[in-house]
Specification:
With 492 residues, this protein is of the alpha/beta class. It contains 18 helices and 22 strands.
Length: 492
Amino acid sequence: MQRYQLFIDGQFRDAAGGNWFDSWNPFTGEVWAQVAAGTAEDVERAVQAAHRTFTSGPWPALSHSQRGALLRRLGELIARDAEKLAETEVRDNGKLIAEMRGQLNYIPQWFHYFGGLADKVQGAVIPLDKQDYFNFTRHEPVGVVAAITPWNSPLLLTAWKIAPALAAGCTVVLKPSEFTSASTLEFVKLFEEAGFPPGVVNVVTGFGKDVGTPLVEHPLVRKISFTGSDATGRAINQAAAGHFKRVSLELGGKSPNIVFADANLEDAVNGAVSGIFAATGQTCIAGSRLLLQDSIHDAFLDKLTALARTARMGNPLEAGTQVGPVTTRQQYDKVLGYIDVAKQDGARLVMGGAPAERPECGRGWFIEPTIFADVNNKMRIAQEEVFGPVLSVIRFKDEDEAVAIANDSAYGLGAGVWTGDIGRAFRMSARIQSGTVWVNTYRAVSYMSPFGGYKDSGLGRENGMDAIHEYLQVKSVWINTGAKTGNPFTMR
């Protein structure tokens, strides 16, 4: 059985406590690997290595252009090993090989983009109101970054965090989800080959209380980038405040996918299915609330259900599979619990609503694609993040009601609008309270476009030029070019 060690200061090593935990294959329901169970002692070693590397040695001596070259080289190595990394992710989290291949072939672009941006972050000369002073600004790296990633897209979200962090000149301690650590530990093997100095990127695997908490609370960690639940994000934000650490939090979502009567209905049906079932609903931007205008509601629901019933479930390593398993047994049980809640609250079950018992699903953690109609937006199924293949269908009359329903949520991460009216597209995108609005498409992301949430969906932005500034701090430099200092008690 494969065993994965911690990665600290450029070396793989066992956890200080000598313990391991199991990693389960969601398709087979069996253990396929063991991962080192890190402790606070391991966190201390990793943070000290990252801090030492940040403050001395070859890493801070590199020019911005040299850092960029290392990132671009890393991107090339990821592209070379994309198939191997994709297969590791599928075994670990059960997502479709087609999706993971797409992600791994796209991930190198994050390192190419931020590698190119590394030497293009510029300060400014300030035209002061004072004579005989010269003032300019510098953008400097914040220091050691704690990057905490979830189990649904481990390497993609790792790239979102570490590409801008390294381009800024920071060093990183990664804490992957205890459910999906393997691909991260395969990925970090590439750093030495790319030419990064030891200690620039470190990985400590384990559980939240043993690794996550001491990492967040460590005084040498100056920035935390977290993707996960809003409850955990809130706890991290509170802990970070004690040391005034900077935080980026990409948290939950309950995204509305709004279809107007003037939309291209075939495209919208495909977009609705993709938005909730393509990733088994295990994405923070899942279009889990489908808002349908009254005049098309019934016909659209019929088309949607007919298409969803054709979904091919089974082995996620097979190219023809369209819906894979839920990644963890805990999440599987949670999703089934929400289905029961929706039934009790009066939502009408249109399809699914039970474990998938198809032969092709084997002993894995599969749930039938599930659609509830007659959902009131106040129901728990419409307000709480399910994170599974469960869709809530809600009626609306006009733009105003659609906006009111869409915004009646604690979350604000993503939203979709399907319409043939360009004016409506602009109006809706302005009125919906979310960090991303897709019009006549859904779930599109790019390394070039900022991503993040409103309200309880988080703080900060990932991707695009905004992302690198999350890992930089501004310094103002004043130079006296000849002015007399004057009275020290009145000088300002």
